[in-house]
Design a protein that fits this description.
CATH superfamily: HIT-like
CATH architecture: 2-Layer Sandwich
Distance between the termini: 28 Å
CATH class: Alpha Beta
GO molecular function: UDP-glucose:hexose-1-phosphate uridylyltransferase activity; zinc ion binding
EC number: 2.7.7.12
Number of domains: 1
Strand order of the largest sheet: 3-4-7-9-8-13-14-12-11-10
Largest sheet: 10 strands, antiparallel
Strand content: 15-25%
Number of strands: 15
Bound molecules: zinc ion
InterPro entries: ADP-glucose_phosphorylase, GalP_UDPtransf1, GalP_Utransf_N, HIT-like, HIT-like_sf
CATH topology: HIT family, subunit A
Order of helices and strands: EEHEEEEEHEEHHEEEHEEHEH
Protein name: Galactose-1-phosphate uridylyltransferase, UDPglucose--hexose-1-phosphate uridylyltransferase
Pfam family, one: HIT
């Protein structure tokens, strides 16, 4: 059955179109090219860092496991600016390309997030949290976006596993819509839109992929992409950076399990994952929000219909995607 489904938070419509006849196995990736360790820029992050400076090393010294560096080719820079203002250029608004662009590198050349020891995966999330807290101190920063590009079609230009953080002076449109939808839902229903979805998924059971003590992973009802996954802390929290150690560990475990299943089910496909959290400024405004991680496998190519309408056509029913991922143990 083909169906238009509306996302409860953003209001976006998606066309779930399984009648296009693609089975889960049709989404399997081709064999991944493994780039050699020799000549890899991230074997020594200091050499790949802007100004040769390591921002953070965990642990410090020779036996480091995770390091954070400033990107040598940053999308945004601080560039000696202390205060930034919006200006007008003709009818347009313009802001300096201010911000921070950091790269978080894990030690092992071949171990992506699902392959790390659970302690090291936890360490990666702790480094994200530490950098968040530090970057949020800059009042020019409105939003901090943390993400992973895994594989060439997901935008990774370097093979060695790494993650990026971009702290920017604007709230990105996707986050703005998400915040807006969450605030509206709260006003109308006196409930968190994400808690509502979590409760419904728990009741329905169909789209749950895995669960840990403090986190749940499911395929969203209005999934835009085949095998899309959301990782939610079970407890309502607006801010990723406020998550405590125990919960963060449990969330890391859930993300690892979900990515391991994706890897097994679809033969190690490319994917992106990113954190959606409340903005770092005006914190009192966002108590309605519920931070989470979105995982988007790159198995599908958007074409003219999607580009021109923003209605994604998803040939994979999320119920079937979840069941396929659940079974990939
Ligand atoms: Zn490497
Ligand atoms: Zn909630």
């Amino acid at each position: 059955m083909n169906e238009f489904r509306q996302d409860l938070v953003s209001g976006d419509w998606v066309l779930i179109s399984p009648s296009r006849g693609r089975r889960p196995h049709d989404f399997k990736a081709k064999k991944r090219k493994r780039a050699p360790k020799i000549g890899c820029k991230f074997e020594n992050p200091r050499e790949a860092a802007s100004g040769g400076k390591v921002i953070l090393s965990e642990p410090d010294g020779k036996y480091w496991k995770v390091q954070a560096i400033l990107n040598k080719y940053p999308a945004v820079t601080k560039d000696g600016l202390w205060v930034i203002d919006e200006e007008k250029e003709g009818p347009f608004f313009v802001l300096p390309g201010y911000g921070y662009h950091e790269v978080i590198i894990t030690r092992d050349h071949h171990k992506a997030f699902p392959d790390l020891d659970s302690d090291d995966a936890f360490l990666v999330l702790k480094v994200f949290r530490q950098r968040y807290r530090s970057l949020a101190n800059d009042n020019n920063i409105a939003y901090i976006h943390t993400f992973a590009n895994f594989g060439e079609t997901a935008g990774a230009t370097i093979y060695h596993p790494h993650y990026q953080i971009l702290a920017i002076p604007i709230i990105p449109p996707d986050v703005r819509r998400s915040l807006h939808g969450s605030a509206n839902y709260k006003e109308k229903n006196d409930a968190c839109v994400h808690c509502t979805q979590i409760n419904w998924e728990v009741e329905q059971k169909k789209r749950i992929i895995c669960e840990t003590k403090d986190a749940i992973v499911f395929a969203p009802y209005a999934s835009k992409e085949p095998f899309e996954m959301r990782v939610f802390p079970k407890k309502h929290h607006p801010y990723f950076e406020d998550t405590d150690e125990r919960e963060l560990g449990s969330i890391g475990e859930a993300l690892q399990t979900a990515l391991k299943r994706l890897k097994k089910a679809l033969n190690d496909p490319d994917y992106n994952f990113f954190i959606h959290t409340a903005p770092s400024r005006d914190r009192e405004k966002y108590s309605h929000y519920h931070w989470h991680i979105e995982v988007v496998p790159r198995t599908n190519i958007s074409a003219g219909f999607e580009l021109g309408t923003s209605v994604e056509v998803n040939p994979m029913d999320p119920d079937d995607a979840a069941s396929f991922l659940r079974d990939a143990k």
